[in-house]
Amino acid sequence: MSALIALSRFVGNTFAIWVLLFAVLAFVIPSAFLPLTSWIVPLLGLIMFGMGLTLKAEDFREVARRPGRVLVGVLAQFIIMPGLAWLLCKLFALPAEIAVGVILVGCCPGGTASNVITWFARGDVALSVSITSVTTLMAPVVTPALIWLLASEWLPVSFWAMFVSILQVVLLPIIIGLVVQRVLGDRVKVAVDILPLVSVLSIVAIVAAVVAASQAKIAESGLLIMAVVVLHNSLGLGLGYLAGVLTGMPLAQRKTLSIEVGMQNSGLGAALASAHFSPLAAVPSALFSVWHNLSGALLATFLRRMKDDRDK
Predict the structure, then answer these.
(1) For residues 259 and 261, what is the distance between their CA atoms, to the nearest angstrom?
(2) Which of 5-14, 160-169, 174-183 has the lowest mean pLDDT?
(3) How far apart are CA 118 and CA 126, in angstroms?
(4) pLDDT digits (tens, 9 = 90+) for 289-312
(5) Bridge-partner residues for 264, per DSSP?
(6) Is 1 helix (H, G, I), strand (E, B) or coil?
(7) 45, 208 in Cβ contact below 8 A?
(8) What's the CATH number for 31-302?
(9) pLDDT digits (tens, 9 = 90+) for 106-126
(10) What φ, ψ does residue 264 adopt, rounded to 5°?
(11) Choice between 106 and 2, residue whose per-residue pLDDT is larger
(12) Quick count: other Cβ atoms within 10 Å of Cβ 152?
């Protein structure tokens, strides 16, 4: 078991490499990964179940202890990234399916990878976990509402269908994870130790499936989508940091806001796009997953060298 735990930690620490590697493989030999398309939603549910296994009461104490900072993070997450997505779609005059895909990933909550990146950047991990948890729990209502508001001019959007989907693949698995954690107590620790391995394998499979299903479209317009994804993520990271500056937060919290805002739950974006729109609409989420793990790791390397302001 210790070997499996060590493997899990290694795979978790090299997450970006595996996502990039299998995205390339899926593009080169799509037929090998097409069977994974039917597993996109169950795999996302597995990731969310893992999140439920790890959530603790103290993760939400930050909300009560420093509600202002958590509120700023939640508002920044659900205003900056959706707003940037809509603006980029307009500026680049994106085709309908791609535009909806960009807006969809912009309207998703923060991803759990942001917590690891925040730790590496010497940010405020407690604040990061709180913002990720709160935005994830708000996602069943907020994410479909934002997508309906911003993407309806390109394609028809059903708020109710997306609401039900997010309940099924996000909230329900989290609740089941919380119940299992409550019932099993310390016996769940072994499962938690290998969660990085399960999460990485699941995200890699989701990205590979989306890339394989849209290989021809990526070959045709992949550079355009990638340019939009890089801009979306980079501007999100920058404006997240700026939100911390404007609200007078110390350095550790500014780092956290930058990472929380710029890194999305792209797995959820890919699952929703595949279920409600088309494989092409899932491509921005897949490419975002590849890119934001690379950019997040690079940014964290830079941020951790900054002199940390411990004034809380």
Answers:
(1) 6
(2) 5-14
(3) 10
(4) 778 877 887 888 788 788 754 544
(5) 110
(6) coil
(7) no
(8) 1.20.1530.20
(9) 999 887 778 778 877 888 888
(10) -105, 165
(11) 106
(12) 14
Supply the DSSP string of the chain, one letter for each residue.
-HHHHHHHHHHHHTHHHHHHHHHHHHHHSGGGTGGGGGGHHHHHHHHHHHHHHH--THHHHHHHHSHHHHHHHHHHHHHHHHHHHHHHHHHTT--HHHHHHHHHHHTS-B-THHHHHHHHTT--HHHHHHHHHHHHHHHHHHHHHHHHHHHTTTS---HHHHHHHHIIIIIHHHHHHHHHHHHHGGGGHHHHHTHHHHHHHHHHHHHHHHHHHTHHHHHHHHHHHHHHHHHHHHHHHHHHHHHHHHTT--HHHHHHHHHHHH-B-HHHHHHHHHHHS-HHHHHHHHHHHHHHHHHHHHHHHHHTTSPP----
In the block, residue with structure tokens 């809380």: 312
Domain boundaries defined on the chain: 31-302
Measured distance CA(129)–CA(123) in Å, rounded: 11
- pTM for this entry: 0.83
Q: Which two tokens mark 56?
A: 């603790």
